[in-house]
Amino acid sequence: MTPRVTEGSADAGTVAWTRAMQAAFLGPRLDPELLARMGATFEGQRLRGAYADPDPSPAATLRSWDAELTVPGGAVTADAITGIGVRSTHRRRGLARRLLAEDLAAAVRAGTPAAALTSTQGSLYERFGFGLATRTRTITVDTRAARFRDPGPRGTVELVDRPDTARALASSVHDRARRRHPGALARTPGQWDALLTGAAPNTGLEPDRHRQVAVWRDDDGAPAGYVVHRVEQGWYETGAATLGVVDLQATTPAAYTELWRHLCGQDLVGTVTWSHASVDEPLPWLLADHRAVRVEGERAMLWLRVLDAPAVLVARRYPIEDGIVLDVADEAGFTAGRWRLDTHDRLAPAVEPTRAAADVTLPVSSLASVVLGGVDPRVLARAGRLEEGSPGAAGRLARLFAAPSVPWNGTPF
After folding, report:
1. Model pTM?
2. Phi/psi zone of residue 202: left (φ > 0), alpha (ψ -120 to 50 degrees), beta?
3. Mean pLDDT of residues grouped by 10 in the chain (413 residues)?
4. d(CA 44, CA 275)
5. Do the strands 211-217 and 223-233 form a parallel or antiparallel pair, or are they unpaired?
């Protein structure tokens, strides 16, 4: 169903769906009025549920919407999926499996080339053809040891209190910045509201009073970066506060540097931490001593499902000219086939069905992992997740699928 929203409140069916989703994720029991406001944030999205008459509240839930996904040199529409939950009394009945299968099938019928989700248990979705496509990690900066190499500062930093102003500035920056990162997705209005104010469904729509938005402008006054951060721990407990970065986006190296200089240069702040940083953050290289930045292990972030292999392959651009035959296996039957990818025309790569011998044979989950450039096909070949049909084919594919930057999605959903 599609939520119907009137004067900021969702209809009764959406309220029942929202209540069920809250329960599946161990959320608190909420008043109908609050559930109606929460349901209104799903306006324009698709809600799926498994129902047992006469109960109006579903036993299982799934939510999805269309979002633009960046691929190297281009973009595709992706079916963004979240809210997959099952009531504790109805587990192990295949309800979540049915909802996800139906959602993917509907996306294929609509001509959507890919699907994406983020999950702490993402490996569960490999059975549906999803492959790990982007990773993230946590970085922590000791501000007392952070000394920037360049003299700076440049441009100006502006704190923005009005949510509407912050959203207008941040969204314009993000729209440019996300196109630099394969795996990044466009954000919904609800995601923007939650990010900038902290008023998210999982917080009962209560704003986060510790959250601030800072925008960096260049010497011409144009916004080129922003950071959303909050106080994680006050200074009065230890003498030095901890700032947590919620989101940081920059369209230029100068914007990136100055936003970090702003974060690290605040009085009473001893530590700055970011739990959704890219695996290739340049911050340590901006500092005189790399040891001021502590990096924790990588974690899975975006799981990608290719639904139309030719559409995804022609949407991206390639750094070299080559022709390679890919044989893709897909148990669901959405995009199984053998194709020749020809990149001799850099601006218009071609994908055609072929009966020629395959250079590379791989399951659709492995295609999802390598197509954004985040996983080396040679690694998957050594793991038995990709088969070479011709000598050196995995290396050729690695060079073909190399991306201009490491894939990164900084928006969990």
Report:
1. 0.94
2. alpha
3. 94 95 89 93 96 89 98 98 93 93 98 94 88 97 95 93 94 97 96 91 83 96 97 88 97 97 95 96 96 93 97 97 98 97 95 98 98 97 97 97 95 91
4. 30
5. antiparallel
